[in-house]
Design goal:
Strand content: 15-25%
CATH topology: endopeptidase fold (from Nostoc punctiforme)
Number of domains: 1
Shape: globular
Number of helices: 5
Structural class: alpha+beta
Number of strands: 8
Radius of gyration: 16 Å
Length: 161
């Protein structure tokens, strides 16, 4: 089951415009938008520009650092998460994974975030964007139309040798 994103039309368009222009060093765009829309910047876009949203969410998972497994995740994220100790949930709690999907492509995740509380998430807006806390729905339009929630429940069993 998924949660369809509603609201924040103007802000989502502005975020999309910022993404299309690219993240220019020293650009005040994120700060201005954050002041208007309630985005809470956690890190400046001029900081970490070597990692994106998936790294932000899965950096503590050993599989994410293996290029072959990361490619499997990107190819079929839902199946991959379900095979690696995650379950899909309807009511997210703090630290659950939030996966964004496009209506046109319901297989590949377009954005990853961590649920914080009260329909708020923390995510990194692309490789060159900031890490921010924001409303679940407050993402650029290219990030998708709906979300699914996943919770880590156990380590997957290791194959016996």
């Amino acid at each position: 089951m998924s949660y369809i994103l509603y609201g924040y039309e103007r802000e989502r368009e502005e975020l999309e415009e910022i993404l299309l222009r690219g993240f220019q060093q020293g650009s005040p765009s994120w700060r201005v938008l954050a002041q208007r829309s309630g985005i809470k910047l956690i890190s400046d876009p001029d900081g970490d520009n070597t990692h994106g949203c998936h790294w932000y969410v899965f950096q503590n998972e050993s599989w994410y650092h293996d290029p072959a497994q990361r490619a499997q995740f990107l190819g079929a994220p839902v199946d991959f998460l379900l095979q690696h100790g995650y379950v899909e949930v309807q009511q997210p709690i703090k630290e659950d994974v939030v996966s964004y999907f496009s209506y046109d492509d319901q297989i590949h995740t377009t954005h990853s975030a961590r649920f914080t509380s009260d329909e708020t998430v923390c995510s990194k807006f692309g490789r060159y964007g900031p890490t921010a806390e924001h409303a679940l729905e407050l993402v650029p339009y290219p990030y998708g139309d709906y979300v699914r929630f996943f919770r880590k429940v156990e380590e997957p069993e290791k194959p016996q040798q």
